[in-house]
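> example.struct
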């Protein structure tokens, strides 16, 4: 059985595909869904991921909201965004806010 959020997500994805971007898509998005300890370990390889971006492209890391305490360890060129993954799954308005921001 199809759930309401699946229909809304399908509709939003369809709308987004038809929405023209102001410029070309750019940047590197990394998702680190681990906790505090995993984030500390991830910091050691974050610099290597910066090599995937071109000179002027931003590198964004999505961290769990509780792991944002360790975001200060990331390189200064990396933008960290805290995301509550449980809320992302259950709250349509929050999911729309996060996905629109990343778009």
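> example.seq
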């Amino acid at each position: 059985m199809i759930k309401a959020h699946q229909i809304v997500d399908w509709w939003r994805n369809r709308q987004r595909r038809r929405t023209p971007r102001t410029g070309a898509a750019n940047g590197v998005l990394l998702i680190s869904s681990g906790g505090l300890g995993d984030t500390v370990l991830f910091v050691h390889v974050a610099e290597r991921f910066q090599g995937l971006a071109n000179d002027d492209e931003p590198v964004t890391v999505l961290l769990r909201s509780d792991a944002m305490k360790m975001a200060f360890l990331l390189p200064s060129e990396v933008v960290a965004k805290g995301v509550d993954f449980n809320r992302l799954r259950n709250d349509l308005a929050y999911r729309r806010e996060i996905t629109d921001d990343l778009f």
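> remarks
The chain has four helices and three strands.
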